[in-house]
Specification:
Elements (H helix, E strand, L loop, with lengths): L1 E3 L5 E4 L1 E5 L10 H10 L3 E8 L11 E5 L8 H21 L4 E5 L1 H14 L4 E6 L7 H12 L3 E4 L16 E3 L19 E6 L5 H11 L5 E6 L4 H11 L4 E3 L8 H6 L3 E4 L13 H9 L3 E4 L3 H8 L5 E3 L10 H10 L6 H21 L2
Parallel strand pairs: 3-4, 3-6, 4-5, 6-7, 7-8, 8-9, 10-11, 10-13, 11-12, 13-14, 14-15
Antiparallel strand pairs: 1-2
């Protein structure tokens, strides 16, 4: 897409830099931006932090910062990593001119906020995506300032708007964590055993201990967890509880999700209602909708309310409560009563939000 100067003269192609501070696979939504900008002939680059030191496919878009870091490293090493990454990106920006930016996540925005607010006011998209440390007032105020001076701030859940007292109706844009419309229905389960599956980042081990206890050694259920993160803690809990129906399978590739879907009866989409997760809508929720898989959701979460308000059948349990009212018998009864049909109202809601999102991207290019 040719870029016009303030005098209307066409002189060069617009250049946009995407910035993320996590591994490439943790920025799946970046594909929406990349595909759209490539379709508009925009000169784009995507700089991200390759924390796992995975081999990245060579292309003319990706600019990885290769510095290893994981959840188990010391705070000093983590801070050092963030400082090194910030230096890397700022040096890259000094050597390469970009007209506009797209910043992924609040952690990345907070890290570069002083630079972005000085150089790119009203020339960046803040992809807020998910909640992080907004419970701290100094952090929330900084995030609010970044929202105020953004062209648009993209959110993945309407629940996040309640985090902010100020009104930004003209700033917020919904972009669902949904992927392609490919539908692969789960294979018919000829066994009486109900297959419960989780895939994604393995986290909240203390919370998941309650889930494991709830289903512990009930031979009518089998729980499979796919992903990496707090695997060591999870495996330790499984061993301590002596759970024989819970299995950890480790890291996976995105194309394997299709196989998980085919062998899943209930999608485990539960997260504790803490300050970070309560208002979120996960990628897995959209995958559950797309593949028509019954979901197990934390009761009282925004996802629970969202699915209920859109008449989407699901099972909700309050695992945050030490005294869980339901039993595994109740889960089986509810599971057998679920009949998921196409929810045209929900599909249309998502499609409308996506239509608005892409129109805002077009406006961003003006």
């Amino acid at each position: 897409m040719l870029f016009r100067s303030s005098f209307g003269k066409i002189n060069r192609y617009m250049r946009i830099l995407l910035i993320g501070s996590f591994d490439l696979y943790l920025h799946p939504y970046s594909k929406k931006y990349i595909d759209f900008f490539k379709g508009k002939k925009i000169d784009i680059k995507f700089v991200f932090w390759n924390r796992s030191l995975k081999k990245i496919e060579e292309n003319d878009i990706y600019v990885p910062f290769n510095y290893q870091m994981n959840s188990y490293q010391s705070l000093i090493k983590k801070i050092n990593g963030y400082l090194k990454y910030r230096t890397f990106v700022k040096e890259y920006l000094k050597k390469n001119y970009f007209d506009k930016l797209v910043i992924f996540t609040t952690q990345t925005m907070f890290l570069f906020s002083w630079y972005v607010l000085k150089k790119y006011k009203d020339k960046y998209i803040f992809d807020y995506r998910d909640e992080t440390y907004e419970k701290y007032s100094f952090y929330r105020k900084r995030v609010e300032k970044c929202i105020l001076y953004s062209k648009y701030t993209v959110i993945s859940s309407p629940g996040f708007i309640s985090n902010f007292k100020m009104q930004y109706d003209n700033k917020f844009v919904m972009c669902h964590n949904s992927k392609s419309n490919l539908q692969i229905l789960p294979q018919k389960n000829d066994s009486d055993i109900i297959r419960i599956s989780f895939w994604g980042m393995i986290r909240q081990p203390k919370y998941y201990k309650k889930i494991f206890l709830f289903f512990k050694n009930d031979n009518r259920f089998i729980i499979n967890l796919y992903g990496k993160g707090y695997e060591k803690e999870m495996l330790k809990i499984i061993d301590e509880l002596d759970c024989h129906n819970v299995y950890m399978h480790g890291e996976y590739d995105q194309h394997q999700i299709i196989d998980f879907v085919r062998n899943t009866d209930i999608l485990l989409n539960c997260y504790s209602n803490n300050s970070i997760q309560k208002n979120a809508i996960t990628v897995k929720m959209y995958e559950g909708i797309k593949y028509k898989i019954p979901m197990l959701i934390q009761k009282g979460s925004f996802m629970d309310a969202y699915l209920t308000n859109n008449n989407y059948p699901h099972i909700s349990i309050d695992f945050d409560n030490d005294n869980i009212e339901l039993t595994t018998d109740d889960v089986i009864e509810q599971f057998k009563s679920i009949n998921i049909k196409s929810n045209h109202a929900l599909d249309e809601r998502i499609q409308l939000d996506e239509f608005v999102f892409y129109n805002k991207l077009k406006d961003f290019l003006k």
